[in-house]
Amino acid sequence: MRILLIAGAFNSLTQRVYAELGERGHHLSVELVTRETPLPEVVRRHSPDLIVAPMLKTAVPREVWSARTCLIVHPGPVGDRGPSSVDWAVHLGAERWGVTVLQANDEMDAGDIWAAADCPVPEVGKSDLYRNEIADAAVEAVLSAVARVASGTHRPQPQTTLPDAARTGRPRPPFRQELRRIDWRSDPTDTVVRKLRAADSQPGVRDELLGDIWHLHGGHPEDTLTGRPGELLATRCGAICRATADGAVWIPELRPPRAPGEPGTLKLPATLALGNRLPPLPELPAPLGPGDDGPRTWSDIRYREDGAAGFLEFSFPGGAMSTGHCRRLLAAYRHACARPTSVLVLGGRRDFFSNGIHLHVIEAAADPAEESWANINAMDDLVHAVLTTTDRLVVAALGGNAAAGGAMLALAADEVWCRSAVVLNPHYRLMGLYGSEYWTYTLPGRAGPEVAGQLTARALPMTAAAGARLGLVDRIIDCPAQDFAAQTGRLAARLASAPATQARIATKKAARERDEAERPLAAYREHELDRMHRIFFDPDEPYHALRRAFVRKEPAAATPSHLNSPPVGA
User: Fold this and answer.
1) Taken in order 361, 363, 365, 368, is the CA torsion positive or negative?
2) I need a surface site. Which of 31, 47, 110, 318 has the fewest CB within 10 A?
3) What is the pTM of this model?
């Protein structure tokens, strides 16, 4: 079918739906919609068989939905209504939630039901839940709804005819800041964490801290540290630890409020955001060990072992890796490489693998060009360490999405394992960058020069299955997000004990030596960084305006043309 996707942004869910529908042979076009978008005119121009709205905050005009079937993806169970569904799921501590695909009509979230799917709600932040369990349920429901539309025989079910038992959700108001407010004097740690997680990516929890108003982003429990409720106790790797009524929480990021009529503000590591306002506090080293059986505490990098398999897990907010993140991860990687293992698994337990350099930290720097340069060199140092590891097999385990330099970090490994739901964006062009991280060595080496050129030029998202067909992915693990770490652990232990593994390590070492003799890695790095240096230090390069628009969430003036070009391999 010819399907038009309409969305407020080409966000993670819209990309996932786009990639999954494309996998199934549908002809897709995309339009990014604001209140000013002349949607009837847009629809007439595309003339689709079906309209799907994976993420839409504006109402669809009657002129559109009365003429064509328009499916709205609502991230809530049947009967749920309102703009803050996922926020409520986390705040309420729901055990299960769901996604409903509705036909657009005059009333928001009240249309006839084409499909629905439910999902578990683990104890994670809202954005993690949205990108994983909610997205999995959304894809299941969208594919079912699209198949039903294509059949021409299915009739959607009016919500008014549903029995009460079928309505597991109910209308809920917008989740405003007064509902998110933390009472530091009386709220226990679990309550504070739940409030923070229900707002982790957007909008954050509005709060007073050190005499100023901030939005707090992300929350992790801490059992050992205590203090006067509300006071700051310590710092760790850019995060701050704040006392609750019965313990403490780690808060990784802060963002100042946006002033009316001003650009969006930057979400930054908490200590960087506070700057000189931060009082003298102890910097507590991050525990590198697992700590699963001990007190709860937060660390964004952990290492553990299971026999001859080592696991270096990392999780950075939004998948962004600053200069500091890269250097700390490189130090942990070197520690892991000093251990007596034959397989090293690199990746998180779930959610983002990596999205490359940290654009927010770069934008906030006194000299963004210098910080861009430092950040890309720190990423290159990390990737170089992976590429030159010749005494064991390295596996990149992608429980979540990867893009730009983060995708290239994965390709530096000997094997790339992806959860089946992962979306890959192995390109840099949309940020006006040539790219580095040795991509000119790894991407053509896996996909061939022609496909590598297409991937970087067309700049479109792809499923893990598409990545496997093109040579970018070696193993697809079809499992829920919660099971990915356990599945990866079993596979890695099996690989470490396999009789052929030592022979593979020897073969890998010989291949690296041959490649180095043919063209040294330093030559690839020099070529890439020469292009990147010119981009970073020329204020007229598009990168600077594109970066600024991205981090300050400036709406797109129009739908980018690349979204309506055919995917690689089509």
Assistant:
1) positive
2) 47
3) 0.95
